[in-house]
């Protein structure tokens, strides 16, 4: 039985568990589980990271851990009882783990590896913490290290900033919001800007000296030198190098490395240098030969200098190679570094071209302790410390130092009887009081240990040497008295044995008799002469002698007059010894009581560092004097005390304050001093108002903190000693003192008056006194003092008074003091604080300080709430709310609306201020309870005040929600903010309902409320879906989903509005729509019904909901393009609203709206998904087309339509689909007119006139047509532009345009165009986007793209799709499958423009355009056998299944693919198939013969092959097979209805024979000699063929006329009467069956299956070329998807013949396009364009029907049977309507602007064709409609074609007024249709409807004619449906 667990609640998985048992829960090692129940060794529970899946698992797999359970029961949460740092580490590492893998995927290798190292490091540290063996300090360090690493990783991965106290995460509920803000800000600042270090240190590591002339040991000295003041800043660092230039002691790193410590920020200047002096130790001359002399001298070698500023910019890791310079003369050695710095080149030179000193130099920042932690290796390895000369910028108490620095400056020596100058060397010793040499107390510098003596440099032959050598004498303090330094001078001879001969000495004592040390500065010492062997061991003999010339008595002229002198400079750096006599006098005041006055006066002149050295002694002295003679010296002692106290305020000595504090606590013994101190202090305060000079008094008040410390401590000592005697007297004194203070503070003065400044000084120090007073007085007493003191300040001060700022600082310190923390005192002080704060905030002054005060106040309230009585806190909150809430809101508004200051520092302060105030507001609102809100709302005296307050607070909340309010990673702070906002809004919504509804309704407040709610729900930090599961879980546990709460509140408030809802329709539709798009199901369920409500109210108001629809549609596009919304939303929106409107009266229109919006969503979602993909592909383009169509046809949104036109245009350009890009831009072009109406700036178009924009578009489109090789279309636009230029007399541009037009004609003739392939693609299955799902399309392939390549491309675009391997239509299972199926095969285009293709003499490169442009229909043929198959003659049963696909728009167009709108399937009988095959072959033969005659062929091979193929096939049974199959009696008897077709087949066979005979004649003429045998063979076979056909002679109708080809080629004229080939081209009669099809001059790339190939071979009776399949039939037949070759381009089939025999124009010489493209004013009025006829003259429709022959297929629809002339025999080409149902519309229009065959876009729904295109213009209805008749030359048709009702004159006067359009619609999509104002409105290219369907109701396109264009009759055709007009709201686009 399963029992709920009590204590076993939380555990970690020890081993992975597969969960194979029933209800088993799979576990992975390391997972954490929460346990719910237990049963016999099994637990039931869930993994914490996936709490929704529950299951069972074995107990043995789980390691239990202690945990704390919250909310026991069904929704309990378990928190492990462990260190919070461990918990955080675990959860953070889990989050990082997932992101870390993603870094690898995204190829961010650097961060991947860094994070990996950090994660491992954290895991190691975690183990250390878990083991628990660390000491307390070590644990602290480890935790600090862990949190630092966690913060680094979070920052790198863009995760949230974690607020921490003492390394633990802070719970935002446990601390005040202000405290939380402070923590966040502190961590943020720490992360952003580390505080600049005030101390710096220079690390130096000497590597080596490189030089060619080494060979002697070297000494290298480094020091830091101030080039501005020309003095060293530091002592020297000394390194010894061996003869190779490497460090002498490589194992002792402290002898090669040093740290120059305590450099101030002021020392990092360009003129501060590192100076290196190098001394060699060896012979006197560097080049001397090695002699016997073993004496070594220290001689100059070189110097190097580098600026410290260079190290700030250089890479610290690089070694520096310093150039070493030598001086030209040794006498300049002392200043060589100065010469190098000054660049005095004449005084030094490089010591060798390759001499250089290699050193590592690095600047380190921070105090020395910090460096010890950060650079542990440096200090453990060993590094010497090189100090500054003198104290650092900050002197620390307890620092012990006693260094005397002596610099050997220069000497003046006599020759001493020598002819040359001496080589002088000085030896230095330090001797103690007994004359003993102090061992190891002479140091050349840090780095090397000190020695017993020091030998100076030797300068060669120089009696006035200057050394400038510094030595350090670190003598202990106790040895200073009596010690002296002795300098011995020796001459170093270079002769003899190199002896050093003593010739004199100097000495200097270190301390004077009065205890003062040797003063700093220059000393000129006397050189006492002596002999070489003089014994100086007994120093008492010479110590009595004078040592310095400055100290000589005036009567001793002998020594004064001597020329020999020696100069040194001394400098003492000691924390214990002084050189100041006044200091010593004061300390020894008892010895000389008469000097007390003097000493006290001189104290102020003594250097501060001397006073702090003896701070305790000095204070004891002062209080001693005060105790003994307070009357006499009281004032002076007080002043001295003030001087010392103020001295410690200096930053240099501030660290000595603790020393004074310790003194007061432990050593101060002046129990009676308090009386004198109070008395003197009061005396000063009382004189403030009258005193002229306030400086001294201000100094006294500055020191008041410590004066009070002394007073209080003195009184406590007195009380202890006397048992609290004189207590009352003391209290009275203090009260009197405060009265004096209050009096002086209450004085009103000008801001600049000295008294005001004194008041400011007192206020600055006053808060420091509170703590002292509390030691004696009660909390309430001290609070009373403070309240009265602060209350005494004048209230009416000027805003610019500095005193105000100081007063605020004083308040701030008061609030932060111990006094204010106590609740008792807080009650007393709060009113004063609030009064001052309110005054400042109302005037917007000192806001940073106000924010600081408020923050401190509110932090305290939060703290107290946890531990003290609730009423106290509540009262305080009430007071603060009453005083500050309103002004706080105003302040935040004011700050937020201020312009940001320019400087970064100002901006920081400004930002600080805003954040602080926001935190204060949130803290205050969080503290407010129901009672507070009630009191707040009741306090408003009028509705207007309440209204203003609500508007204000709503506005502030909107500001708080702004993303920029807090840094990006402050999610914790944002969530707290949102929690406070929603709580407050819930309170305030009641007030809104009660006060601003019904008759008191206020739109502005409600609008503000809704607007706030909407942006609240939409803010990024509440979109939980975007967070990691763990973060989402934490937020939901802590706050729930605040979006749902707010959504419910919106709904509730909306329901309360009643009839006032109408005020928010349509304004709130967009915002509410945005809310519903948030992917939260509960929120959507709550909010979507509001739209139903809106529709309902709008319906009541205006009887429809057009406004709701318009707004919904407008907003959907922008919101979904931003990535909002999903498929679930679409379904939810649809289902919820449909359910809601079921019972409404307006249900139908509602369903229509919902359907429209849902369909728009489908398209928008598809569009968004497609756009996410990388490259431009068909999917993107198709999706954009679908959306563009939707906006045009269904929504009528012109602006959106135009935007998507341009999006589509950009996609095409990117994909280099230039033709499609042109067609797309044409959509916009057609919306514009040639007018001067100004257009606003739109997209990338500037503000310009409509004419200019249209001109620009024309030029762009022409350019793209040119790039897409669609030159014919470009020509038409060029003409239109030329007409415009001509009408404006702009001949310059007209000339350019004509030239451009000419160039396009040239390109047509000269350039090669590739013929594209077309493919039919079916998209089946539910996984495709809506715009593709279960639809079929025809796609225009890319250049050179064949079926295999196309198929591969489609599979790449749809990688999850499955290619179907058959061409049959799929069944419903495929349609409904949850997958993607692609069905692809090649199809053959059926051209429209048959008249051009049929016309003789038109070059192929012109025809190629008409073959592959403006194609509506495509065909696909599949051969099959019906009935039993005759093995000997397969032709008998070979049928063809012909599929004709009609598109919604013609190709090419605005897309490379269009949807198939209609699919027709017919079967072609074997006889009809045979007729078609022979027709095509005849046409092919004619074409080749013509080309050969016109010498258009390079060689005659194609004709040869074709003749061979036909003749050879016929001989081998080709035509004979047809005879066997169809001319036998059985067939004729069984198929009596085919009699005529059999006759037609016979005619064609005779015709073929006739053409072959003519072809052989031509072939004979051109055949080359080597092919003559073949020709002879062909002739022989031809005769055989004729005999096999039974043709001995041609029939009469063939013989009557020799073979004659018009224009040199055989004419295609079919007639049942003779003269089928006649010179004048007799009238042709249609003999084709329904299924006859015009072949096209191209082949499908798909190969036939083997069966089909065999079948087709049998049809044609030939097998030599697979390209001859089906006698050049281009259909793919049973197209195999895996076809791997394309047809040979050499073999060309005949031109399409669907229009052969169609009525031709009488003037045959005219180009077929000419009339088609003429503008109305150019077109001649002639027989071609007769005058309008009466309706009676038109052929009635029944006549047409009567004259047609019966169909071979009885199943064809009526329209097919009655359409066109495909079944006519030898009748006149009477005009036909497209469909019998549409007889009322004039079937033909003579205006070429409606010509379909040559139209640019060819998809206008106009159903009539021009006369010139004849019956072929009707051929669009069916695959093989157009087989019409040909007019005899010069004859008019029997039934002239009725033109439109009104015909334009061919030329209209230029004064004609252009007709003005009344409204604007989408473009006509044919450039050829531009000038016909009467045409029915065409659809956009992407929306046009195939010819058989009626045009849908669309807005008519008003058409304005150019100047000179024809006039129109104003009447309109009532039969054309009038669509709804498009509003001109985008007319300026």
Summarize the structure.
This protein is of the alpha+beta class and 1933 residues long. α37 (1069-1076) packs across α40. It starts with a strand and ends in a 172-residue tail after the last helix.
Textual characterization of the structure:
It is a single chain. The protein has 1933 residues and is of the alpha+beta class. It has 63 helices and 40 strands. Strands 1, 2, 3, 4, 5 and 6 form a six-stranded antiparallel sheet that branches. A six-stranded antiparallel beta barrel has the order 34-35-40-39-38-37. Helix 25 (802-816) runs parallel beside helix 28. The protein starts with a strand and ends in a 172-residue tail after the last helix.
What ranges have pLDDT less than 50 throughout 5 or more consecutive residues? 863-869, 902-910, 1596-1932
How many distinct helices? Answer: 63
Biggest β-sheet description:
6 strands, antiparallel
Instruction: Give the percentage of residues in beta strands.
Output: 5-15%
- Oligomeric state of the chains present here: single chain
Between the first and last Cα atoms, what is the distance in angstroms?
A: 76 Å
Number of strands: 40
Average pLDDT score: 77
What integer value in Å does the Rg equal?
54 Å
General form: extended
How do the helices and strands line up, and which of them pair or pack?
Elements (H helix, E strand, L loop, with lengths): L2 E2 L5 E4 L18 E8 L2 E6 L2 E9 L3 E3 L2 E4 L6 E4 L3 H22 L3 H23 L4 H21 L7 E2 L2 E2 L7 H16 L6 E12 L6 E10 L4 E2 L4 E5 L15 E8 L7 E11 L14 E11 H6 L5 E5 L1 E3 L8 H7 L5 E3 L5 E10 L2 H7 L1 H6 L2 E3 L15 E11 L11 E8 L21 E3 L10 E8 L3 H4 L3 E9 L7 E10 L11 E6 L1 E2 L10 H4 L13 H5 L3 E10 L6 H7 L8 H7 L5 H6 L1 H14 L1 H18 L9 H11 L5 H14 L8 H8 L1 H19 L4 H19 L8 H12 L4 H4 L5 H13 L10 H15 L1 H4 L1 H20 L4 H21 L2 H28 L6 H24 L2 H9 L4 H19 L9 H25 L7 H16 L10 H11 L2 H16 L11 H8 L4 H7 L1 H14 L3 H16 L5 H14 L6 H25 L6 H17 L3 H18 L2 H12 L8 E2 L8 E2 H18 L3 H17 ...
Parallel strand pairs: 15-22, 36-37
Antiparallel strand pairs: 1-3, 2-3, 2-6, 3-4, 4-5, 7-8, 9-10, 11-15, 11-21, 12-13, 12-14, 12-16, 16-17, 18-21, 19-20, 23-26, 23-31, 24-25, 24-27, 27-28, 28-30, 29-31, 32-33, 34-35, 34-37, 35-40, 37-38, 38-39, 39-40
